[in-house]
Amino acid sequence: MKLISGWRAGLLAALLLVPAGRGGAEELAIAFTLDTPPFVMDDATRGIEIDIVRAALEPRGYTFSVRQMPYGELPTAVTKHGLDAAATVVRADDGTYYSDNYVTFRNAAITKRAAGIEISSIADLKGKSILAWQNAYEDLGPEFAALFSPDVKAPYRAKYREIADQREQVAMFWKGEADVIVIDDTIMQWFTNELSETLDTSAPLDHHKIFAAKTPFRISFKSERVRDDYNAGLKHLRESGAYRKIYEKYLLK
Q1: Which of 99, 145, 164, 217 is the most buried (most CB within 10 A)?
Q2: pTM for the full model?
Q3: Rounded Cα gap, residues 127 and 116, in angstroms
Q4: Does residue 8 lie within any of the structural domains?
């Protein structure tokens, strides 16, 4: 039996990572939300989500270009705008192919401690002025949706606002424009640190854990084949420990 030389073996191993029938990298157009550190950063050139998607796809023969858009437009980025994929979405019956969960958010209702606001359930949010992210009512479960979806006509609903730019959402909270901010803990801390140079962000906060422990998100793909390749890459990242290292790169500083 003829042995394969070292460099030929390395080349063969690299080729085996590329799905059969494709020569060279296949470029995808993927929609990501506006910058939301540490998940999407620096015009979507880096961040936890960007790094996970890149590490899952590139070894399987894909590159991608980014189309950034407000969070509320992501669910239709594939079906309406014709992109190859959209990140940070929840599963829907829209004819696209959804990946496994690839990123989770730990959401809370946050208040300034000095305000003395008691919140022990989602129902306790009624009557309070609230800042949430765009389309939050679709992500936080049926009880939240029943209270704050656009179809709700109750008077308290007028005090609920959704903000497309989460940096602006956090700034509005620190400027005193709402009693409560509903947001992921990590995103809140990141933007609070960033805004501390121009705003007073020193007030102690209370984090009311009234939502599910984690809110998972997926990627919507136009192609079932690409979705399957991505899922295989994501599985490898988790099993190899590379997934955890991506999180640590941004959070353990």
Answers
A1: 99
A2: 0.77
A3: 15
A4: no
The pLDDT value recorded for residue 52 is 98
**Which of 12-21, 155-164, 209-218 has the weakest average pLDDT?**
12-21
Quick one: which of 95, 97, 75, 94 has its CA closest to 86? 75
For residue 23, name the pLDDT band (cuts at 50, 70, 90): low
* pLDDT bracket for residue 253 (50, 70, 90): low
Residue 205 phi, psi (nearest 5) = -120, 155
In contact, 91 and 142? CB cutoff 8 Å = no
Q: Per the structure block, which two tokens stand in for 219?
A: 């990627």
Hey, what are 154's tokens?
A: 């109750």
Q: What is the CATH number of the domain that holds 181?
A: 3.40.190.10
The β-bridge relationship of strands 97-98 and 130-133 is: unpaired
- What is the number of domains present in the chain? 2
Host domain of residue 53: 24-104+215-251
116 and 201, same domain (yes or no): yes
In the predicted model, is pLDDT for residue 189 greater than 80?
Answer: yes
Distance, in Å, from the CA atom of 167 to the CA atom of 181, rounded to the nearest integer, reads 12
Let me know whether 120 and 168 are in one domain: yes
Contact 123, 148 (CB under 8 A): no
Q: What is the rounded distance in angstroms from the CA atom of residue 243 to the CA atom of residue 236?
A: 9
Residue 27, exposed/middle/buried by CB under 10 A (0-12, 13-18, 19+)? exposed
- Cα 181 to Cα 172: distance, rounded to the nearest angstrom: 9
